[in-house]
Amino acid sequence: MIVDKIKKREPSAKQITNKVDIPIGKWVKCDKCKEIIYKETVRSNLRNMP
């Protein structure tokens, strides 16, 4: 039956890729709030602390 053939279809025809081109080492994750922050911003903020 047609229904059996539809159920047996493999999703291999559609390849879903969720790759994001993010440079390694440029971002850090805050342990407290779990937010992703640009590393240079963190360094700049630490330099400007009184």
The N- to C-terminal Cα distance equals 75 Å
Output the helix-strand order: HEEH
Helical content band: 25-40%
Based on CA atoms alone, the radius of gyration comes out at 23 Å
Please describe the structure with a list of short key phrases separated by commas or semicolons:
alpha+beta, 2 strands
What's a concise summary of this model?
This protein is 30% helix and 12% strand. The chain has two helices and two strands. The relative contact order is 0.11.
Q: What does it look like?
A:
It is elongated, with a radius of gyration of 23 Å. It has helices at residues 2-7, 39-47; strands at 27-29, 36-38. Strand 1 (27-29) and strand 2 form a beta hairpin. It has 2 helices and 2 strands; from the N terminus they run H-E-E-H. The longest helix is centred in the last third of the chain and has 9 residues, at 39-47. It has a domain at 22-50. Strands 1-2 form a two-stranded antiparallel ribbon. Helix content is 30%, strand content 12%. It has 50 residues and is α+β, with helices and mostly antiparallel strands.
How are the secondary structure elements laid out?
Blueprint (H helix, E strand, L loop, with lengths): L1 H6 L19 E3 L6 E3 H9 L3
Antiparallel strand pairs: 1-2
